[in-house]
Specification:
Layout (H helix, E strand, L loop, with lengths): L1 H16 L4 H8 L8 H10 L2 H29 L4 H7 L8 H10 L3 H25 L3 E2 L2 E2 L1 H5 L1 H19 L4 H24 L7 H27 L3 H25 L2 H4 L5 H4 L5 H9 L2 H10 L6 H14 L1 H16 L10 H11 L3
Antiparallel strand pairs: 1-2
Helix pairs in contact: 1-3, 4-7, 6-7, 6-11, 7-9, 7-10, 7-11, 10-11, 11-12, 12-18, 15-18
Organism: Helicobacter brantae
GO biological process, one term: isoprenoid biosynthetic process
Keywords: Magnesium, Metal-binding, Transferase
Length: 362
């Protein structure tokens, strides 16, 4: 099975090389998504069995929808008759698009849901621009951040531009949907402030940590789920619960990966969060497991540049006391709770999203 998947994606990769040929035009004329040319379609019929072929076709169609969402974001920003805005915007891109994937899984691929996706992506991009300025981050997904390239002022102003354009287009959606999304941005901003103040000293409180990530990370994911449910007349609170749990679990795993993954994978040094003053769940769990004299040692490392010896002590302590495993288990508990309020018959992709989020490595 894996060999067939690899062969299929090799075919798709070869298609990209041939994308400028007239084969692409023939594919489009026959109603196939652009990523699959006439050549790819013929080859896939020979090497891929029907069930897997259908899955790959669905994946390609889904990628086409995600591309439409990104184009929608660019179109909204393109409404500004300002070359400076366009220059700044050209340096950033959509990331994992978790929120858009969630909206599509709940509300389908209607024009209204795709527009909601583009608005949510604008908000997410704006929040990341401000986040990088606050964190003084010089990298975003392994490449230079906008503030590194153009300075803090331009990064902040582009974030404001994206927020304002998102609000403008929110007015075209149903009032209930617009209020839901707008409220999540209020919570997101509140979470940012909590995060900044909490970074001033070591935070040993799991309750404070969960409240902060609920607001800063999970609120926009929860509102994406709730707004999607509103669009199709489903139980808004049940889907809000799903999104909130997904968001909390997502952030916990993100915080674990900051410790366990390499700089090559993350695009930033490992344990970077702790250096920036963020006391994430693994550190909180470790603090409460350490003997008193070592707790003080942990607190003194907070918000400091860590040398290799200090990192080694932290890694060994995480392993000794099981703080990483314990944090992952808490993420899994939130993940298991996510679908608990949904009615039977919900889209199985929601289970797949939860599973993929827990198992991800970046």
């Amino acid at each position: 099975m894996m060999d067939l998947i690899i062969r299929a994606f090799c075919i798709i990769a070869l298609e990209k090389i041939l994308s400028k040929s007239n084969l692409q035009k023939r594919a489009k004329s026959e109603g196939f998504p652009p990523i699959l040319s006439f050549f790819s379609r013929v080859m896939m019929k020979k090497v891929i069995k029907p069930p897997l072929r259908s899955l790959l076709m669905e994946m390609c169609m889904h990628n086409e929808i995600l591309q439409r969402i990104c184009e929608g974001v660019a179109s909204m920003v393109g409404e500004f008759d300002n070359p400076y805005i366009q220059e700044l915007f050209s340096k950033i891109s959509c990331g994992k698009m978790l929120r858009s994937r969630l909206i599509l899984a709940i509300a389908g691929e209607s024009e209204e849901s795709i527009k909601l996706c583009s608005i949510i992506e604008l908000i997410q991009l704006a929040s990341l621009l401000h986040d990088d300025v606050i964190d003084e981050a010089m990298k975003r997904r392994g490449v230079d951040s906008l503030n590194a390239l153009y300075g803090n002022k331009n990064a902040i102003m582009l974030g404001d531009v994206l927020y304002s354009k998102a609000y403008y287009h929110l007015l075209s959606l149903p009032t209930k949907v617009a209020k839901c999304v707008a409220n999540s941005v209020c919570l997101l901003s509140s979470g940012e402030i909590r995060d900044v103040f909490m970074a001033k000293s070591f935070n040993p409180s799991m309750q404070e940590y969960i409240l902060m990530i609920e607001e800063k990370t999970a609120s926009l994911i929860a509102s994406s789920a709730k707004a999607s449910a509103s669009l199709i007349g489903e139980d808004e609170e049940a889907y809000h619960h799903y999104g909130l749990c997904l968001g909390i679990a997502f952030q916990i795993i993100d915080d674990v990966l900051d410790i366990t993954q390499s700089e090559q994978v993350l695009g930033k040094p490992s344990m970077n969060d702790f250096r920036e003053g963020k006391t994430t769940l693994p550190y909180i769990k470790l603090y409460h497991s350490l003997p008193e004299n070592e707790r003080e040692k942990l607190v003194l490392l907070h918000n400091k540049e860590l040398n290799e010896e200090q990192k080694k002590w932290l890694f060994e302590s995480f392993e000794k006391y099981g703080s990483i495993k314990e944090s992952i288990e808490i993420a899994k508990q939130y993940a298991q709770s996510a679908t608990s309020k949904l009615q039977k018959g919900y889209n199985p992709k929601l289970d797949e999203m939860i599973e993929a989020m827990i198992q991800r490595s970046f």
